[in-house]
Design a protein that fits this description.
The chain contains 1 helix and 50 strands. The protein is mainly β. It has 6 domains: 17-208, no CATH class; 213-299, Immunoglobulin-like (Sandwich); 304-392, Sandwich (Immunoglobulin-like); 397-485, Sandwich (Immunoglobulin-like), CATH 2.60.40; 490-578, Sandwich (Immunoglobulin-like), CATH 2.60.40; 597-684, Immunoglobulin-like. The strands form 12 sheets. It has a 7-stranded antiparallel sheet with strand order 40-41-38-36-48-45-44, with no helix packed on it. Strands 1-2-3-4-5-6 form a 6-stranded antiparallel sheet. Strands 12-14-17-16 form a 4-stranded antiparallel sheet, with no helix packed on it. A hairpin with a 5-residue loop joins strand 18 (276-283) and strand 19. The protein is rod-shaped.
Length: 686
C-alpha cells in the first residue's frame, strides 16, 4: 500500500482567527485541493472537539476534520494541526495545516490515518496574522516523523519569505531516545531543510531574520566630535532587532524604529574618529546583514572663536593666549593672528578651549588684529574674530642712568639702561626744569639723551622717567636717579681792584656759574662781605667793608659755590687794601673825560692778570669783552650803565691758554646817543 502525498494550494476566502481557535464546528472554506494531481472539491474544513470543551492553542495542536468530495466519492478525515507563535509582533500564529492522509482506493472510502494520533504530517502551511490576514508559505516536500510529538519534515525546505519585518521560530522535536530530524541551512540564511539525524533531536531551534536592504542615508555626513541623527531608508528593518554600525569612533546611542522601511540612528562621533568615507553595516542578526560601502563620510566641523585672552599683546614679548570657541581639534585647528606675530605652538585642551604661545615681533604694526581660526579639510572651515587681539607697545623698564650727576648750567649726555625701549616711541623726562634736547634708542635695553640743565635748576636728586605710549605702553620711574649739583664758579674780572681801610665799597665781579643763594665771596681777614648779589650768572655785585686796621697790600679773592657739587676759584692778589683816606675807588681820576676811550692794558704781555683802563664822557651803557683769535668770547668784563669818569678793571686769565687776545669795548651815550667801539690786543704768556 502506497502513501499518497497530497499537495495542497489553499486560497482562504474568509478567515477569522477567533472562531477558528475557539468555536466548535467553525468552518474554514477552501476552494480547491489538489489530490494526486486531480482536482477535488473540499466542501468544508471544521475544527473537531468531541469533548465540547474550549479549544486551546497548544504545541500539541487541535483536531481538524477535513471533508473532501470528488467524482469517486467523499470522505471525512480527522487531522491534528499545530499552531506556533511568531517572535515579532504584529504577527500572531502560523498554522501548519496537515492534508496528508492514506487512502486504499480512489474512492477514499477506506481512507485511514496511519501515523500516531499526535503526529503532524504536513506538506504545507498557512501563516495567519493576529488580524486574520493570510500570509504565504510553501513547503516543497514532506517526510514522515516517528513517535509522539514528532515533526515529520524530512527533506522539507523552508524557502518562503517570512512575515514582513518579522522572524519565525522554527522547531524540531522528536521522541526521546529515537533517531529524528534536524534543521540545516540550505543555500542561504533563509533556506533551511529538514534532514535525518542519527541521534535524538529532542530540542533545537533557530531564529532567522530577513536580510535588510539600505537604499539611502540622510544626512550622509557627520562632524567629528558631534552628535547627529541619521535617517536610514531601506527594507526589512525589524524593531528591537535591526542594528547599525558606522565603524570605529562612531557610537550608535540608540535606534528609533519608524517602520520596516525606515530607521533613525542617533550617533555620537568621537573627536578622534578618523575622517573620510565609511562603510555602513545594517544587520538583523543571524548573518542577515548588508554593507553599504563608502556611503557615509566623517568630516571636520567648521570652528568658531568667541574670545582671546589676554587681548593686549606687546612688542618683543612672548605671550600665552587662552582661546575659547567651539569645534577646536588637535592636529586640525590652526590660528593666524596676522603679520609680525609668530605662533610657536597651539595646544587644544578641549573642543571649546585651546592655548597658543605667540611671539610679537618688533616690526609688528600696533593696533587691533583679526584672529583667524581654521579647521582643515575634509569639511572644516574658517572663522574670524574681529579685533581679537590688540598689538601694543610694552611698558618700559628704566633701571638707571649714567652719569648720575649733572651740573647746573651744563649740557650733558646721559645713557639710560633698562628694557623695552622702542625707537621713535619711547620718551624720557628729567622733570620740569631740565630740557631733553635729544633722545635716541640704541637698543631695546639702552637709550641716550642729551639734556640741558639750566643754572636756575634746583640742586639735589630728581626723578627720571621713561614712557611708552598707548596702545599698551606704560611709565617707569627711577626715584632720585639724577643728582643736580652746583658748578664750580669761574672768575674773569674784579672792579675796582683796590680800596682804602675803613671804606665800604661795592665790587663788580665778572665770570660764570654764579648762582643766587649759592655763590659766596671771601677777601680775607678784616674784610667783611656785607652782601653778594647775583646780577646774572656772569656778574656779581659784592658789598664789602674794609676794617680800619686791616692789613694793607694784595688780597686773594675766593669765589665759592656751595655743595652739592660746587667748588671755588681763588684769584691771588686780585684786590689791594690801601691805607689813607677813602676815595672813589672805581674812578681812577677826578678829571672829566671828553670822549670815550679804551687805553692800553698794563702789564702787557701779562700772566695771569692785566688791568684795562677806559674813559666814559657821559652816562652810558658799556660792554667790555675779551675775544680769542677764533672770534670766541672768553670773558665778559663789564656790561652795565656807568657814569662819566675814568675806569679800570682787572682780567684774570688763569683758566685761559697762552696767546693773543682782543679786548673790545662798546659804549653808547644815553644822552647824546653817541656810539663807540674800540679794541686793544693783549698777550698772555704762561
Amino acid at each position: 500500500m502506497s502513501i499518497p502525498r497530497i499537495l495542497c494550494s489553499v486560497l482562504l476566502l474568509s478567515l477569522s482567527i477567533c472562531p477558528l481557535l475557539w468555536g466548535q464546528g467553525s468552518r474554514l472554506l477552501i476552494s480547491e485541493v489538489q489530490v494526486g494531481g486531480a482536482s477535488s472539491d473540499i466542501e468544508f474544513v471544521e475544527l473537531y472537539n468531541p469533548t465540547d470543551s474550549p479549544i486551546n492553542l497548544s504545541s500539541r495542536g487541535i483536531n481538524l476534520r477535513l471533508h473532501i468530495r470528488n467524482g469517486n466519492g467523499s470522505a471525512d478525515v480527522n487531522k491534528t494541526l499545530t499552531f506556533i507563535r511568531t517572535t515579532i509582533p504584529p504577527y500572531g500564529y502560523f498554522l501548519l495545516a496537515s492534508s496528508a492522509f492514506e487512502r486504499a482506493n480512489p474512492g477514499m472510502s477506506d481512507a485511514t490515518y496511519s501515523a500516531s494520533s499526535n503526529a503532524l504530517l504536513s506538506d504545507g502551511c498557512v501563516y495567519i496574522s493576529r488580524s486574520g490576514a493570510i500570509l504565504t508559505s510553501v513547503i516543497d516536500r514532506v517526510g514522515w516523523g516517528t513517535g509522539a510529538d514528532a515533526l515529520g519534515f524530512e527533506g522539507a525546505r523552508f524557502s518562503s519569505t517570512p512575515p514582513p519585518g518579522g522572524s519565525i521560530e522554527r522547531k524540531m522535536r522528536n521522541a526521546s531516545n529515537t533517531p529524528g530530524y534536524r534543521l540545516e541551512m540550505d543555500n542561504n540564511a533563509l533556506d533551511f531543510a529538514v534532514r535525518a539525524a542519527s541521534s535524538p533531536q529532542n530540542s533545537m531551534s533557530e531564529v532567522l531574520n530577513l536580510v535588510p536592504a539600505l537604499t539611502a542615508l540622510a544626512p550622509d555626513t557627520a562632524f567629528r566630535g558631534h552628535s547627529t541623527a541619521v535617517v536610514l531608508t531601506g527594507e526589512n528593518f525589524i524593531g528591537g532587532t535591526t542594528s547599525v554600525n558606522f565603524g570605529p569612533g562612531i557610537t550608535v546611542d540608540s535606534i528609533g524604529f519608524v517602520g520596516a522601511d525606515q530607521l533613525i540612528a542617533f550617533l555620537t562621533v568621537d573627536p578622534a574618529a578618523e575622517s573620510g568615507q565609511r562603510d555602513v553595516v545594517v544587520s538583523n542578526g543571524s548573518g542577515a546583514s548588508v554593507t553599504a560601502s563608502r556611503t557615509f563620510v566623517v568630516v571636520n566641523p567648521a570652528p568658531s572663536i568667541v574670545n582671546v585672552s589676554p587681548q593686549l599683546v606687546t612688542y618683543g614679548q612672548t605671550h600665552i593666549l587662552d582661546i575659547t570657541g567651539n569645534n577646536l581639534m588637535t592636529g586640525v585647528t590652526t590660528i593666524n593672528p596676522g603679520a609680525g606675530i609668530t605662533v610657536n605652538s597651539l595646544t587644544v585642551n578641549s573642543s571649546v578651549h585651546a592655548t597658543a604661545t605667540v611671539t610679537i615681533e618688533h616690526f609688528a604694526v600696533p593696533g587691533p588684529r583679526e584672529v583667524i581660526v581654521t579647521n582643515a579639510a575634509p569639511g572644516g572651515g574658517v572663522t574670524t574674530l574681529a579685533e581679537g587681539i590688540l598689538v601694543g607697545y610694552p611698558a618700559p623698564t628704566l633701571s638707571g642712568i649714567s652719569p648720575s650727576v649733572g651740573v647746573r648750567g651744563e649740557t650733558i649726555q646721559v645713557k639710560l639702561g633698562g628694557e623695552n625701549f622702542v625707537a621713535g616711541v619711547t620718551s624720557v623726562s628729567f622733570g620740569p626744569e631740565i630740557s631733553v634736547n635729544t633722545f635716541s634708542v640704541t637698543s631695546l635695553a639702552e637709550g641716550v639723551a642729551t639734556i640741558i640743565i639750566p643754572i636756575s635748576a634746583a640742586a639735589g636728586p630728581i626723578d627720571v622717567s621713561a614712557t611708552n605710549p598707548a596702545p599698551g605702553g606704560g611709565l617707569s620711574t627711577v626715584v632720585g636717579a639724577l643728582t643736580i649739583s652746583n658748578p664750580a664758579p669761574v672768575a674773569t674780572a674784579i672792579a675796582p681792584t683796590s680800596a682804602m681801610r675803613g671804606s665800604t665799597v661795592t665790587l663788580t665781579m665778572t665770570g660764570a656759574r654764579f648762582i643766587d643763594g649759592v655763590t659766596s665771596v671771601s677777601l680775607g681777614d678784616q674784610v667783611s662781605v656785607n652782601a653778594v648779589t647775583v646780577k646774572s650768572s656772569g656778574e656779581l655785585a659784592v658789598s664789602i667793608t674794609i676794617g680800619a686796621t686791616a692789613a694793607t697790600g694784595g688780597r686773594s679773592v675766593v669765589i665759592a659755590n656751595a655743595a652739592p657739587g660746587g667748588g671755588s676759584v681763588t684769584i691771588t692778589n686780585a684786590f689791594t687794601v690801601e691805607a689813607g683816606i677813602p676815595t672813589d675807588v672805581e674812578k681812577t681820576q677826578n678829571v672829566t673825560p671828553e670822549t670815550f676811550a679804551l687805553h692800553e692794558a698794563y702789564p702787557n704781555p701779562f700772566n695771569p692778570m692785566t688791568t684795562i683802563r677806559y674813559a666814559v664822557p657821559e652816562l652810558a651803557r658799556v660792554k667790555l669783552e675779551v675775544y680769542n683769535m677764533l672770534g670766541n668770547v672768553v670773558a665778559v668784563l663789564a656790561t652795565r650803565e656807568q657814569s662819566m669818569g675814568f675806569y679800570e678793571i682787572t682780567w684774570f686769565a688763569e683758566n685761559q691758554p697762552s696767546g693773543v687776545y682782543l679786548v673790545r669795548m662798546q659804549a653808547e651815550g644815553l644822552e647824546s646817543q653817541k656810539r663807540f667801539i674800540g679794541s686793544r690786543k693783549v698777550m698772555l704768556v704762561k
